[in-house]
């Protein structure tokens, strides 16, 4: 009996091709090459001096080992400036990988091109061995994130480091991993068991929770379809994963302060979702959830872009994005805040008041509307109401308030350059430095300037009394005599 009667060479070659960089493949090749070369010589009825044969085998094996070592840890790298979507999908055999899985990958790439996202998104496909290694790393990291969702904080002592190393090699932003299996379930079916992970740096715990919660609501854990619909099934699977990936990466871009990219990813998603939902009966719940939440994200993205343009002296584009924001969502907190600002800039104070009150009605925890209302009262010379609002501001805080305070300080400083006689700006600046930033020297300077600018003006009597009490507190705090 020959060696072929004991070994399934098709199975061995399939394994070697799919797991070429595993340690087992290294050993198998070093063993198989002399066996196969010996069989080839027998079949071809060729003879070779044993010494030269062993030298040839040794040289080939050495070359193979050098190649294996050089390429084993070499992973494809995301191009700088692009969002890397990394596929680490394992398959059961080479036929599934080269035929079926390729349908999924090719359609995913096609969707990137058709959506005009080739300049933004790059699909990184890992081989079988790399997929197996990265999948294990991502599973461990997901368990670490589960601990965070369970306990509400990151346990830094148990933080896995392997993903950081992989991130350095690949540079991905959205990792998709899992397995494709073919099973008999009344009929022959394909099962895609997949998971995902978004990589984002320095966004804080609350924003991390926002991305995580949206991911958990949107993601498909399993997609299954009959073998009869093999090609169409994998194309639809690619569409589903692509749509959810666009949604999740867009949310991550939004919280990472890149509203333009977020809007680019989300803007066409509404129509695409409506189209793909018609292919299911009943439609998947996660796609319905995405569709319901999408309007709010698009409205927020447009509002952030409007804010950027107004800061950079482009009120025309600001108005355009405000309009788009309201087109996405009629009751729009950020939109109302921006409309209030534009009303003030255009000299329409009544309109500004109206939009602030609309924002107040739908505000949840955000208190920007109160800052705007307090200022508008001051601008309208209603110092009593304005002071009452500022006192309420001093009593409450909200997430992101430090950014709001910084923006208001910049606004008041610019206002003084165009309206130097509006002395109340000095009071507002002093108040913010004192009550919100605990910056006593800056608070002292601005309060003293306010007192100097408002001498013998009866209308400022109450404001001056409050300011004087603040100055006394600051003097004690700074140990001034």
Please give the radius of gyration in angstroms.
32 Å
Q: Give me the number of helical elements.
A: 20
Q: Runs with pLDDT <50, length 5+?
A: 1-7
Portion of residues within helices: 55-70%
Which outline best applies?
A: elongated
What does this structure look like?
The chain is an alpha/beta fold. Among the domains are: 3-72; 83-265, no CATH class. It is 67% helix and 9% strand. A 5-stranded mixed beta sheet has the order 2-1-3-4-5, with helices on both faces. Helix 2 (23-43) packs antiparallel against helix 3 (50-72), helix 4 (94-114) packs across helix 8 and helix 9 (259-266) runs antiparallel to helix 11. The longest helix is centred in the middle third of the chain and has 27 residues, at 285-311. It is elongated and about 110 Å long. Mean pLDDT is 82; it is low at 1-7.
Give a short overview.
The protein is an alpha/beta fold and 481 residues long. It contains 20 helices and five strands.
Topology:
Blueprint: H1 9-18, H2 23-43, H3 50-72, E1 83-91, H4 94-114, E2 121-125, H5 128-151, H6 162-170, E3 174-185, E4 187-198, H7 204-218, E5 222-226, H8 230-255, H9 259-266, H10 269-277, H11 285-311, H12 315-328, H13 333-345, H14 349-362, H15 368-379, H16 383-395, H17 401-418, H18 424-436, H19 440-453, H20 461-477
Parallel strand pairs: 1-2, 1-3
Antiparallel strand pairs: 3-4, 4-5
């Amino acid at each position: 009996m020959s060696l072929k009667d004991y070994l399934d060479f098709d199975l061995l070659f399939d394994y070697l091709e799919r797991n070429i960089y595993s340690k087992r493949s290294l050993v198998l090749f070093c063993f198989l090459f002399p066996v196969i070369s010996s069989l080839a010589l027998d079949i071809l009825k060729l003879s070779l001096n044993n010494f030269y044969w062993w030298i040839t085998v040794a040289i080939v094996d050495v070359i193979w080992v050098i190649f294996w070592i050089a390429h084993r840890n070499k992973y494809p790298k995301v191009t700088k400036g692009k969002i890397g979507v990394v596929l680490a999908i394992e398959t059961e055999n080479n036929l599934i990988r080269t035929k079926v899985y390729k349908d999924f990958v090719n359609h995913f790439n096609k969707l990137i091109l058709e959506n005009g996202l080739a300049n933004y998104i790059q699909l990184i496909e890992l081989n079988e061995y790399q997929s197996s290694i990265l999948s294990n790393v991502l599973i461990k990291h997901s368990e670490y994130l589960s601990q965070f969702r369970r306990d509400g904080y990151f346990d830094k002592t148990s933080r896995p480091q392997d993903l950081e190393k992989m991130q350095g090699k690949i540079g991905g932003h959205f990792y998709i991993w899992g397995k494709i299996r073919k099973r008999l379930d009344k009929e022959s079916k394909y099962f895609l068991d997949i998971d995902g992970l978004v990589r984002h740096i320095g966004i804080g715990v609350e924003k991390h929770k926002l991305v995580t919660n949206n991911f958990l609501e949107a993601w498909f854990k399993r997609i299954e379809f009959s073998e009869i619909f093999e090609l169409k099934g994998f194309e639809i699977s690619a569409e589903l994963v692509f749509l959810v990936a666009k949604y999740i990466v867009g949310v991550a871009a939004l919280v990472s302060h890149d509203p333009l990219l977020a809007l680019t990813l989300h803007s066409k998603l509404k129509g695409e979702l409506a189209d793909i939902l018609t292919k299911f009966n009943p439609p998947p719940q996660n796609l319905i959830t995405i569709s319901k939440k999408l309007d709010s994200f698009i409205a927020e993205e447009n509002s952030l872009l409007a804010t950027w343009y107004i800061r950079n002296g482009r009120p025309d584009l600001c108005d355009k994005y405000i309009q788009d924001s309201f087109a996405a969502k009629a009751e729009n907190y950020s939109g109302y805040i921006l409309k209030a600002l534009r009303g003030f800039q255009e000299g329409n104070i009544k309109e500004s008041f109206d939009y602030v009150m609309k924002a107040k009605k739908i505000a949840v925890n955000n208190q920007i509307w109160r800052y705007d209302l307090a200022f508008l009262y001051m601008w309208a010379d209603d110092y009593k109401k304005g002071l009452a609002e500022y006192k309420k501001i001093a009593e409450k805080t909200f997430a992101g308030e430090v950014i709001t305070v910084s923006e208001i300080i910049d606004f008041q400083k610019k206002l003084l350059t165009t309206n130097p006689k509006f002395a109340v700006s000095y009071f507002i600046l002093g108040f913010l430095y004192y009550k919100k930033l605990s910056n006593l020297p800056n608070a002292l300077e601005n309060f003293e300037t306010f007192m100097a600018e408002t001498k013998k003006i009866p209308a400022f009597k109450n404001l001056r009394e409050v300011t004087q009490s603040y100055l006394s507190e600051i003097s004690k705090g700074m140990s001034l005599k």
